[in-house]
Automatic annotation (TrEMBL):
Keywords: ATP-binding, Nucleotide-binding. SUPFAM superfamilies: Nucleotide cyclase (SSF55073), P-loop containing nucleoside triphosphate hydrolases (SSF52540), TPR-like (SSF48452). One of its GO terms (molecular function) is ATP binding. Pfam families: Guanylate_cyc, HTH_77. InterPro entries: A/G_cyclase, HTH_77, Nucleotide_cyclase, P-loop_NTPase, TPR-like_helical_dom_sf. It comes from Micromonospora zhanjiangensis. Residues 13-126 form the Guanylate cyclase domain. This is ATP-binding protein.
Length: 926
């Protein structure tokens, strides 16, 4: 080296690099090795030229470089690794995997070189690294600030370097573009373990890892329980990898799945420790004696393959010595004293608090990029990927399989196919095919466990054992194989309950399960929970039981195969009708004011029941379900969905010839007309109104006919035929009185009052509404809407009576929100906005208008007869505030959720309490 080259002194960071397996690479490439070596040197020197590193010497495939700055040294390593990874090498086999080590210490150059122990320490750190890995000492980590953008240092714990008596804390450089998963550093006293090296990165589960780590530290036996494909093994291995240093005698992984004979379980565990049988002594005694004086952790995987034998061995190990701990994975617990059962939750679908994607989405994105050759999912796919993970219930195996499907499907195509979860995920896979190449090395280790155990007994595994080996390695190749692994262990009652629960779309409580079976379900229910086929979700009112969607899809297939689908789904339909009726009744079985919130949790189950009525069940029952959801569909912005279900039910009736009474048809047609009007389909609205009238007349039901004709007035209003609508309303009111069903004329009264308000006939409208209040109070399905108060509030607004308007509108808004009438609450919000504008608070008025319109747009609700009025009031408000102030307040209101906007509206000060109120003018404040 030239003496003219300036070498840093004082605090110096030394870097060593070399190619991992260079001898083997040279033998394999022959004459092609020299170009690879030269290109490797060129890339590293190009990186060093851009940093302040000084190259001291190069020997073979090794570099020795000195830096004056630790941060620059780390940046150079990162840049070099990225350059090596991104370079176009002749063949994939010729890619040089370079390991790098850094250490920072005080050193002074002498005669163009360093004679310091710090140099040797850096060399030993480099020797401990793996190809593609950058390791640094604790000293470098302390002085490397700032780190390169996006980079971090992963603490790998304390390690003893060859030739040094103390232990050095090593850190791994982690950054985008660098590999993350590596075996333990190659140090002098590496703690023994046989944990499988993972092929793919571990994603998410920070909260779960923390919780499980705490349990393993506090308890000697922790069993991770969950459904097949829930990620039990991966989480256990990930956790065990992080605690290896805590167990001086090692962390030992044993997969019980390939063990076909209960007597071989102890041999399988002994085999990984290198123990051989002793003459005349049971293997379990030899194993327990060996472990008794040692401090070690056993990770026993898939213990449900041999639950009894696994439980017996675990009990012996734990009682034989206090230094042994067991982390087991299984689909059911052991029931041993001291066992802590930790049920692994699905991957979270909630966004990361730091602003990143949820764990479920992160896993899908990671695996999708791998499946697509490194190409990330596009931003336009985000919503569809959310639909995919939601449908897969956060089950990691299902997400992994879904990512594989995204090689050939777009995210939207896959999301559309997930009604058949098993078909979509398992397409192109057969349970009998070999395990994927990515998992073969681990599979070989599983096979070796059985082979070693059999060899210890003096022979090769029997054919039956080989068959179990094959099925064990393939149990996660398809979702169907995964669930079959558990299903085959169920007894007749438990398997029947699993099949029948597949007809439910969501969680069920104990009473619902009893309804379904018409029998005491506690024993089979307990079995399904214990075997992780059902998830228990505790609530203050009692536990509910939820089946993951992939398991439900499997159970539904089994239901059909068993010939039980018709019976089970008819039973579910009966339950749905019963649950719907209960939503309209109180504890005393008497009608109560309808709350649409009572229907929200039933919606998915009722949809499932509706699906059955249009494919294999009773369409008449489907019309009854649809009728129970009549207002709910419109108030939740789902009028179009309601129309589609009705169309399908009409088709089912035509197909089967099922007889439906005229009154029920009239009610369905009337409901359809209302849905069409809410959806802006006015021609369809009139057409079904006419059909409803004809059916009601054939039924001879005067009350029904009055309701239908009142709806006809709404159709006429939608088509701007206001005079004809008013004539129809007056006729309906008179006929309802004559027929003795005045309550059924209530809807005509509402419509007539709106029409009178529209043309300014306020006294008649107020008188009409006053007479209607008793009828409204007597109708539980309508009184929660408080339409009389809403309309009286509109009349008072038009009169300029802010006190009366405030009183009526607050009552209407509070009732509508309390009972879940969200679409109608938007009307009331806008009316209160007008009241605020006239009461001297234009900014708040604009905010409320913005909030109401945002919710109305989300619900796809038309403004109806009030539309022109709201537009006029907003235009007047804009003129008062100016465009900028109005738009700012309006946009601010649009950011509010409906509940927040209602809270703001209800907090508006009563006019009587405002400054200058005429109510208290002249009164002594004392």
């Amino acid at each position: 080296m030239s003496a003219r080259i300036h070498l840093p002194s004082g605090l110096v960071t030394f870097m060593f690099t070399d190619i991992e397996g260079s001898t083997r690479l040279a033998q394999m490439l022959g004459s092609g090795y020299r170009p690879v070596l030269s290109e490797h040197r060129r890339l590293l020197r190009a990186t060093l030229a851009e940093s302040d590193g000084t190259e001291l010497f190069t020997e073979g495939d090794s570099f020795f470089v000195a830096f004056a700055d630790a941060s620059a040294a780390l940046d150079a390593c990162l840049t070099a690794q990225r350059a090596l990874a991104g370079h176009d090498w002749p063949t994939p086999e010729s890619v040089p995997r370079v390991r790098m080590g850094l250490h920072t210490g005080h050193a002074e150059p002498l005669a163009g070189e360093y004679a310091s122990a710090e140099v040797h320490r850096a060399a030993r750190i480099a020797a401990a690294a793996h190809g593609g890995q950058v390791l640094c000492s604790g000293a470098t980590a302390r002085h490397a600030a700032p780190l390169p953008d996006g980079a971090s240092l992963l603490d790998l714990g304390l390690h003893r370097l060859r030739g040094f008596d103390d232990r050095e804390r090593l850190f791994q450089l982690v950054a985008p573009g660098l590999e993350r998963q590596f075996p333990r550093p190659r140090t002098a006293e590496a703690v023994p373990h046989n944990l499988p090296t993972q092929i793919t990165s571990f994603v998410g589960r920070r909260t779960e890892r923390t919780a499980l780590d705490r349990l393993v530290k506090a308890h000697r036996l922790v069993t991770v329980v969950g459904a097949g494909g829930a990620g039990k093994t991966r989480l256990a291995v990930e956790l065990a990898s992080g605690v290896v240093e805590s167990y001086p005698d090692g962390v030992w992984f044993v997969d019980i799945a390939p063990v076909t004979d209960p007597g071989l379980v102890a041999f399988a565990v002994a085999a990984v420790l290198g123990l051989r049988p002793e003459p005349g002594r049971p293997m379990v005694d030899t194993l327990v004696e060996y472990a008794a004086s040692r401090r070690m952790l056993f990770v026993l995987d898939t213990c449900d393959a041999q639950p009894a034998a696994s439980a017996e061995l675990i009990a012996r190990l734990l009682t034989g010595g206090g230094g042994v701990r067991v982390l087991a994975t299984s689909r059911e617990s052991f029931g041993l004293p001291g066992e802590v059962v930790w049920r692994i939750p699905p991957l979270s679908a909630d966004p990361d608090p730091a602003g990143g994607p949820s764990d479920a989405i992160a896993l899908l994105l990671d695996r999708t990029a791998a499946a697509r050759g490194g190409r990330d999912a596009g931003a336009t796919e985000t919503a569809d990927l959310q639909r995919v993970v939601a449908r897969l219930d956060g089950l990691p195996l299902a997400i992994e399989l879904a990512a594989a499907r995204l090689r050939v499907l777009s995210a939207s195509q896959l999301a559309e196919r997930l009604d058949d979860v098993l078909g979509a995920l398992d397409a192109g896979r057969e349970a009998a095919q070999p395990a994927p190449a990515a998992g073969r090395r681990w599979v070989a280790n599983q096979h070796d466990t059985v082979d070693l155990a059999a060899a210890a007994l003096g022979g090769a595994p029997p054919p039956a054992a080989r068959a179990v080996q094959r099925s064990a390695t393939q149990r996660h190749v398809t979702m169907e194989a995964t669930v079959t692994w558990s299903y085959r262990t169920l007894g007749p009652r438990a398997s029947r309950l699993l099949r029948w629960l597949a007809v439910f779309s969501g969680p069920v409580d104990l009473a619902t399960v009893e309804w379904l079976l018409d029998d005491d379900p506690l024993d089979p229910l307990s079995v399904l929970v214990d075997k992780s086929m059902l998830q228990v979700e505790p609530h203050a009112s009692g536990s509910t039981y939820r089946m993951l969607d992939p398991i439900r899809a499997y159970a539904a297939r089994r239901l059909v195969e068993a010939g039980e689908e018709q019976t089970a789904r008819d039973r579910h339909l009966a339950w749905s009708l019963h649950a719907l009726r209960r939503a309209y009744l109180g504890p005393d079985d008497r009608p109560v004011t309808l709350s649409l919130y009572a229907l929200d949790p039933l919606a998915d189950e009722l949809r499932a029941a509706l699906r059955w009525t249009v494919t294999g069940g009773s369409a008449r029952s489907g019309l009854q379900l649809a009728g129970g959801l009549d207002q709910w569909w419109r108030e939740r912005g789902l009028a179009r969905e309601g129309r589609l279900w009705l169309f399908r039910l009409y088709g089912r009736i035509a197909e089967t010839g099922e007889r439906v009474p005229e009154a029920e048809l009239a009610a369905a047609y009337h409901m359809h007309s209302l849905h069409a009007g809410a959806d802006g389909e006015f021609a369809e609205e009139m057409r079904f109104s006419q059909r409803a009238e004809a059916a009601a007349r054939r039924a001879g039901d005067a009350g029904l006919l009055a309701r239908v004709l009142a709806g006809r007035a709404g159709s006429l209003v939608d088509m701007d035929q206001f005079a004809e609508a008013e004539r129809v309303c007056r006729e309906v009111i008179d006929r309802a009185e004559e027929a003795g069903v005045p309550g059924d004329g209530l809807f005509a009264i509402y419509r007539l009052a709106e029409l009178l308000w529209r043309r300014g006939v306020l006294d008649e409208a107020a008188e009409l509404l006053g007479r209607a209040r008793p009828s409204e109070a007597a109708r539980p399905a309508e009184r929660g809407r408080r339409s009389v108060d809403m309309l009286l509030g509109m009349v008072a607004l038009t009169r300029g009576d802010l006190v009366a308007a405030h009183d009526h509108l607050v009552v209407a808004l509070r009732s509508r929100m309390s009972h879940g009438f969200h679409g109608r609450a938007c009307d009331t919000l806008q009316a209160i906005a007008v009241r605020c504008a006239w009461g001297g608070d234009p900014v708040l008025a604009a905010r409320l208008f913005g909030a109401a319109q945002a919710t109305r747009s989300a619900l796809r609700c038309s403004p109806g007869i009030y539309g022109p009025y709201w537009s006029e009031e907003q235009a007047a408000l804009r003129a008062v505030l100016g465009d900028e102030a109005f738009d700012g307040a309006y946009a601010e209101g649009a950011e509010l959720r409906l509940e927040e906007a209602v809270t703001v509206a209800l907090a508006v000060e009563h006019p009587d309490l405002s400054a200058g109120s005429i109510r208290f003018a002249g009164m002594d404040p004392q």
